[in-house]
Specification:
By secondary structure, this protein is of the alpha/beta class. The chain contains 9 helices and 16 strands. Bound molecules: NADP nicotinamide-adenine-dinucleotide phosphate.
């Protein structure tokens, strides 16, 4: 709990920080000063922090390496507005919110007021912590880039992961035939439960021939690839003529460079998605609202596959990067 000792101006809080890049063990449970919201910001008392695969890449020094250390990880926080900075409407105080932020593995985190999403009571803090990073990513790869429509087919790699399970559900809601890839039996069961029509165990069979068999030699209209190096060639081979490969992650390493010449034979498209690409407020609002209303209506489920106390961030990272999790990984803070 944060402490405000008599005579000491700055309040303190617990947070997970790392001082050098490396394995999960570099994450340290520390006592540090509480942040102070600046103009246009609020201070959120964090109840649940979302853990994302990219956090493990940042910690390993593979991504965002220019950010100075020590650093607190965590791109999304769900909690209660505890303090407002200058110029912020005080009616936000006490409201349940979720927001994209940069330091959510902590008891308190700052967020710009424009990033706040008010939470309906029906959405828990843990579910909300799985909504923004993975939800917006799933929404944009399925709808904005993939432009998937009823009657089409999609191949979704890592279909039982955080983004994967959301993408499976969004594609199914759009009337799309979903083929997922996963490793392991539990992941297969879960991907099917959340709506995948077919599941390919890419830990034990070749993907492209199976996709060709499942589509009677046509291939799929769209592939959503977050795995990268180990799936890339199967993704390209699984596409139908005029197909589209959307790349949005490299969990197994970077894919090879794409030669434009290699796209001609099947008139293919390759595109990429990044959550931090500047986006119009209208487009972001539309995506958030679509996700929240689908969730509140019970049509979109955030499966929290692992929920641990904040102090156990090391274990959360170990399991996530070791392919030992399904759905969302959350750190409980309160
Ligand atoms: N572009 C963006 O803005 C953006 C935003 C959010 C996430 N992402 C990316 O989307 C992907 C999914 O993120 P997430 O947080 O939802 O993670 P996740 O999918 O829950 O976890 C990663 C999954 O990738 C699969 N995988 C395949 N090969 C792997 C390997 N060599 N090492 C580790 N995992 C491997 C594993 O599933 P199997 O065991 O079934 O193979 C694993 O469970 C990540 O690549 C992430 O960086 C990108």
């Amino acid at each position: 709990m944060p402490s405000r000792k008599a005579g000491v101006m700055s309040a303190r809080m617990k947070a997970i920080r790392y001082h050098e890049v490396g394995g999960p063990e570099v994450l340290r449970w520390e006592d540090i000063p509480e942040p102070v919201p600046e103009a246009g910001e609020v201070l959120i008392q964090v109840h649940a922090a979302g853990v994302n695969f990219a956090d493990t890449e940042r910690r390993r020094g593979l991504y965002d390496a220019q950010v100075p250390l020590p650093r607190i990880l965590g791109s999304e926080a769900a909690g209660v507005v505890h303090q407002v900075g200058p110029g912020v409407d005080p009616s936000w105080l006490g409201r349940r919110v979720v927001a994209l932020t940069t330091a959510a593995y902590a008891e308190f985190t700052r967020a710009p007021v424009g990033e706040l999403v008010a939470l309906p009571d029906s959405v828990s803090f843990e579910q909300a912590a799985g909504l923004l990073v993975q939800g917006l990513t799933a929404y944009h790869v399925v709808h904005t880039l993939g432009r998937l429509e009823a009657g089409q087919s999609v191949l979704i790699h890592a279909a039982a992961g955080g983004v994967g399970l959301l993408a499976v559900q969004l594609a199914k809601r759009a009337g799309v035939r979903v083929i997922g890839t996963v490793s392991g039996e539990e992941k297969e069961r879960l991907a099917r439960e959340l709506g995948a029509d077919e599941v390919v165990r890419y830990d034990r069979e070749a993907v492209a021939p199976r996709v060709q068999a499942l589509t009677h030699g046509k291939g799929v209209n769209v592939v959503l690839d977050s795995v990268g190096a180990s799936t890339w060639s199967a993704s390209m081979e699984s596409l139908a003529p005029f197909g589209h490969l959307v790349s949005y992650g490299n969990a197994s390493g970077s894919p090879p460079p794409v030669s434009v010449e290699s796209l001609y034979a099947k008139s293919l498209q390759v595109s990429a998605y990044w959550l931090r690409t500047p986006e119009s407020p209208e487009s972001r609002r539309r995506a958030r609202e679509a996700l929240l209303s689908a969730m509140a209506a019970g049509e979109l489920r955030v499966v929290v596959g692992l929920s641990l106390p904040l102090s156990q961030a090391v274990e959360a990272h170990r399991r996530l990067e070791g392919r030992g999790t399904v759905g969302k990984v959350v750190l409980r803070v309160r």
